[in-house]
Amino acid sequence: MLAPTHTVFGLFLTLTILAVFGVQSSLHYSILLAAIIGSLLPDLDTPRSFIGRLFPFASQYLERKFGHRTVTHSLVGWLAASLLVASLLVISLWVSNRLTTSPLVTSGLIKRWLAAFSIGYFSHVILDMLNPRGSQLFWPDKGRDVFPKD
User: Fold this and answer.
1) Given CB 3.0 to 4.6 Å as the disulfide criterion, which of 24, 91, 97, 116 pairs with 34?
2) CB of 36 closer than 8 Å to CB of 4
3) Mind listing the pLDDT tens digit for each residue in 101-126?
């Protein structure tokens, strides 16, 4: 699938889930941006992707080491990316609180950013599993997961 497809599906799924759970301010541009970044990040493992062209060294390394639709398209990749983003967001909250008396970043905003990123990321994995080539959802297991077939 192409970047626009992943972006639209990631935004759709993020906004739907946030609306169902009553998250306020889910239409804020920063929430939408977090969902877009999350929906594009799994394709960091191929230099031909939009995100891969932005980070060519990481992209080439991931493709050589693991291949396309493996570790970044798995539950392990989703969890690792979400934990990394959560760590970066917590650090930014701490720095923001230390530098100013009225922080621009709040814990509520960080939770929404993390939720949007994580939903966007997982939407990419789901969408690629609808493709006949599938993804290695349970990486390091070599089997490709495709639905609705298996």
Assistant:
1) 116
2) no
3) 666 667 778 888 899 999 999 999 99
Q: What's the CA dihedral at 26, 32, 35, 40 to 10 degrees?
A: 170
Euclidean distance between CA atoms 4 and 64, whole angstroms? 25
What does the DSSP assignment read for 30-98?
Answer: HHHHHHHHHHHGGGGG-TTSHHHHHSHHHHHHHHHHT-TTSGGGSHHHHHHHHHHHHHHHHHHHHHHHH
Distance CA 8, CA 101 (A): 37
Distance, CA of 112 to CA of 25 (rounded, Å): 9
Report the pLDDT value the prediction gives residue 25, as an integer from 0 to 100: 64
Q: Residue for token digits 């089997």?
A: 143
Is residue 42 within 8 Å of 72, Cβ to Cβ? Answer: yes
- The two tokens of residue 21 are 């759970």
